[in-house]
């Protein structure tokens, strides 16, 4: 998994052209997509890329990469839709990384930490959904898996 593959995947998911992403534009949707790319670049490739290298495709420096990481983490604390998008990408990239193999013990420990964080966030989302159903009178129905249909 390369940094460009991460960025292209995020561009596809966000409906943004890669050329627009690497432009100097400061439109909100482009800035947020750039920040997601830098966040995941740092998360998944920090052992093989410097902060400066992560910011370079966008003409940004290491400080911007650190700012992007903090911004994504901050937005995730109050915007549940944004958090769901981040979790979606995190699971997608984690799966790709798993398919390509584990590089080090340190990465395995980080992977366990990421999995734990995902489980905690998904549990929190489940609690919110249950509270909503309780308050609104709706019934929470489980999602059926292909295995359940047999």
Describe the structure.
The protein has 150 residues and is mainly alpha-helical. It has a single domain, classed as Chromosomal Replication Initiator Protein Dnaa, Chain: A, CATH 1.10.1750. 73% of the residues lie in helices and 0% in strands. It is built from seven helices and no strands. The protein has helices at 3-14, 18-21, 28-45, 51-55, 62-78, 80-100, 105-136. Helix 1 (3-14) runs antiparallel to helix 3 (28-45) and helix 5 (62-78) packs across helix 6.
Fold-level CATH name: Chromosomal Replication Initiator Protein Dnaa, Chain: A
| Total number of beta strands | 0
Count of individual helical segments: 7
Distance between the termini: 35 Å
CATH architecture: Orthogonal Bundle
Rounded mean pLDDT is: 83
Provide the domain count: 1
Draw up the topology in text.
Layout lengths: L2 H12 L3 H4 L6 H18 L5 H5 L6 H17 L1 H21 L4 H32 L14
Helix pairs in contact: 1-3, 3-5, 5-6
Question: What are the salient characteristics of this protein?
Answer:
150 residues, mainly alpha, Chromosomal Replication Initiator Protein Dnaa, Chain: A, 0% strand, globular
Provide a concise account of the structure shown.
With 150 residues, the protein is mostly helical. It has helices at 3-14, 18-21, 28-45, 51-55, 62-78, 80-100, 105-136.
């Amino acid at each position: 998994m390369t940094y460009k593959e991460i960025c292209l995947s995020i561009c596809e998911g966000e409906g943004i052209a890669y050329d627009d992403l690497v432009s100097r534009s400061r439109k909100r949707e482009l800035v947020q997509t750039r920040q997601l790319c830098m966040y995941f670049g740092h998360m998944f490739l920090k052992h093989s890329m410097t902060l400066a290298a992560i910011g370079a495709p966008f003409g940004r420096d290491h400080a911007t990469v650190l700012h992007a990481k903090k911004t994504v983490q901050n937005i995730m604390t109050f915007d549940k839709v944004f958090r769901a998008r981040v979790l979606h990408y995190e699971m997608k990239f984690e799966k790709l990384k798993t398919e390509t193999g584990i590089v080090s013990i340190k990465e395995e420990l980080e992977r366990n930490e990421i999995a734990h964080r995902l489980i905690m966030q998904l549990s929190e989302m489940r609690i919110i959904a249950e509270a909503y159903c309780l308050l609104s009178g709706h019934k929470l129905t489980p999602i059926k898996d292909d295995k359940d249909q047999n």
